[in-house]
Specification:
The chain is of the alpha+beta class and about 100 residues long. The chain contains 1 helix and 5 strands, in the order αβββββ.
């Protein structure tokens, strides 16, 4: 019984892991806005970056200001997409 339970949990975990990791594909997205956060009182504050892909998917990520140095609205950034879910990379701005 324990082996069977372990087998079922293992198969489910592998299937879930594959679905979460394989479905996102790299895409280009463009910055559509910035906003500041107070990071629940922590230092340093973070900046929320919002971006949109060519298909219209919108995503947001909170990053430290040094990861956005030189970024402007309209810049192309790194992202990955699955359906309408858009994930921005931890250091979204690319060097041109």
């Amino acid at each position: 019984m324990i082996v069977l339970t372990g087998l079922v949990v293992g198969v489910y975990w592998l299937k879930l892991d594959r679905e979460l990791s394989d479905d996102f594909v790299p895409v280009d997205a463009w910055i559509i806005g910035f906003s500041t956060t107070d990071n629940d009182g922590g230092l340093p504050p973070f900046i929320a970056v919002s971006a949109r892909s060519a298909t219209g998917a919108v995503g947001q990520r909170k990053v430290s200001p040094d990861r956005l140095r030189g970024c402007q609205i309209g810049d192309k950034i790194a992202a990955s997409q699955r359906g309408t879910d858009l994930k921005l990379s931890p250091s979204p701005c690319r060097e041109n």
